[in-house]
């Protein structure tokens, strides 16, 4: 079994494909918990139905599965403060896809 720190390090290293920041730094991944079988987390998006939602979820799921865990997740929307921070980080680090 991996330690929580190892799981967090793997998740924290996953970058957004169009913004030069990790999903954790952007506030898209929150409330990471895990047990001996699954990693549970929240995907927090700035807007509903973003076009790359599935891509972002799969980027995490693939890494989690490769560590021997399943992924349990919820999807919620950012509050206004979180969205403002995300938009600022996006504008400063946009690299495109």
Structural descriptors:
3-stranded mixed β-sheet; single chain; 97 residues
Task: Write the SSE topology.
Elements: H1 4-12, E1 29-34, E2 38-45, H2 53-66, E3 70-77, H3 80-93
Parallel strand pairs: 2-3
Antiparallel strand pairs: 1-2
Task: Using the alpha-carbon principal axes, give the shape.
Answer: globular
| CATH top level label | Alpha Beta
Number of domains: 1
Which structural category fits the helices and strands? alpha+beta
Number of helices: 3
**Fourth-level CATH superfamily:** Fe-S cluster assembly (FSCA)
Instruction: Please summarize the sheet with the most strands.
Output: 3 strands, mixed
In CATH terms, what is the architecture? 2-Layer Sandwich
- Would you list the SSEs in sequence order as H and E? HEEHEH
What gap, in angstroms, lies between the N and C termini?
Answer: 35 Å
CATH topological fold name:
GMP Synthetase, Chain A, domain 3
Describe the structure.
The structure is a single chain. The mean pLDDT is 94. The chain is an alpha+beta fold and 97 residues long. The chain has one domain (4-82): Fe-S cluster assembly (FSCA) (GMP Synthetase, Chain A, domain 3, 2-Layer Sandwich). A hairpin with a 3-residue loop joins β1 and β2. 38% of the residues lie in helices and 23% in strands. A 3-stranded mixed beta sheet has the order 1-2-3, with helices on one face. The chain has 3 helices and 3 strands; from the N terminus they run αββαβα. The chain has helices spanning 4-12, 53-66, 80-93; strands at residues 29-34, 38-45, 70-77.
């Amino acid at each position: 079994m991996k330690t929580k720190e190892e799981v967090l390090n793997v998740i924290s290293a996953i970058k957004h494909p169009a913004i030069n920041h990790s999903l954790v730094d952007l506030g898209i991944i929150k409330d990471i918990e895990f047990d001996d079988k699954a990693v549970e987390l929240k995907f927090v998006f700035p807007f509903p139905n973003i076009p790359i939602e599935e891509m972002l979820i799969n980027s995490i799921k693939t890494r989690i599965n490769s560590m021997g865990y399943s992924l349990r997740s919820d999807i919620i929307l950012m509050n206004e403060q979180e969205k403002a921070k995300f938009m600022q980080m996006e504008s400063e680090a946009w690299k495109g896809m």
